[in-house]
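Known limitations

Structure tokens in this collection are predictions and should be treated as such. Users comparing against experimental data should check residue numbering before alignment. To illustrate the layout, the record for Glycosyl transferase family 1 domain-containing protein is reproduced below. The input appears on top and the generated tokens appear beneath it.
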Amino acid sequence: MKIAIDISQIIYETGVSVYTKNLVENLLKIDNKNKYVLFGGSLRRINEIKNFYKYLHEKNLQKLIFPIPPTLADLIWNRLHILPIETFTGKVDIFHSSDWSQPPAFAKKVTTIHDLVPFKFPELSHPNIIDTHKRRLKFVIREVDRIISPSETTKADLIELGIKERKISVIPEAPDPIYKPATRKHVESIKKKFGIKANYLLAIGVSQRKNIDRIVEAYENLSEKSDLLLVVLGEPKMKVKQSKGVIYLGHINRTEMPIFYSGAEALIYPSLYEGFGLPILEAFKCRTPVVTSN
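Generated tokens:
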């Protein structure tokens, strides 16, 4: 069989990006019988797709890049719904679409839906993102043959939105192999690099959905009784509360994440909604305790 995968989302340092990279890398490790066609669409960040392709040398692999920005992908595939994916990939038997756009295809279609934040909590999402996912969902319901869900919770949410249960396969996610306990030397080095001068709690994600305001509020109460710092990773998508002892580091290199986990006294993760909650498993792999919500 010939299997096409839209890998356009790898250019963003998000959970979807990590999932897509690991999906491709591990499929190529375990399957040398089928042929794979990778489709990467971007305009300004083509080099990031090229860098990913540099490390893939399998003989059963074809690597394609097209200058298609996300706004154009949304227009062509989610609004007009024209140009089948085969226009770019040639004839394929299976097509795995991305988290953003839903091209028409003659092939059997598979997609992974990681969560349904724009539908469950529209007040936490940008209106443009909500509109894009609504357009995409219409074609998912109508055309996709199989939907991969990371959890039973997301499966239940999908059924609520009108997707037939028989189309959904629950396949839990797994942490990247890079997540393992770091040495004390590496932890001390990263603390020195980022100016972390005491033991710390770790929070990941700076958005309303990640409950960052409540985390900081709880930390302020704790800091009266403890010398722990609160280290927060992730680019802020909203104005964040500044507080003594809270260190906002923004986006960091993914290779440094296991060290941050390993050095933390605990991961604080009281998220309001998750399709899966992969950071919890990443912390466990680094032997870091987790404080989370149900």
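For this record: The chain is about 35% helix and 20% strand. The chain has two domains: 2-170, 184-292. Please report discrepancies through the issue tracker.
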